[in-house]
Amino acid sequence: MGKKALTRIAAALERLRPPPAKAPDWDAADAFVWHADPDRLVPVPRVNRVELPLLLGIDRARDTLLANTGQFAGGLPANNALLWGARGMGKSSLVKSVHAAVRGEGAALALVEVQREDLPSIGRLLTLLRDAPVRVILFCDDLSFSHDDQHYKSLKAVLDGGVEGRPDNVVFYATSNRRHLMPRDMIENERSTAINPSEAVEEKVSLSDRFGLWLGFHPCSQDEYLEMIAGYCAAYGVDVDAEQMRAEAIEWQATRGSRSGRVAWQFFCDLAGRQGVKI
Question: What CA dihedral angle connects 49, 55, 58 and 61, to 10 degrees?
Answer without folding.
Answer: 40
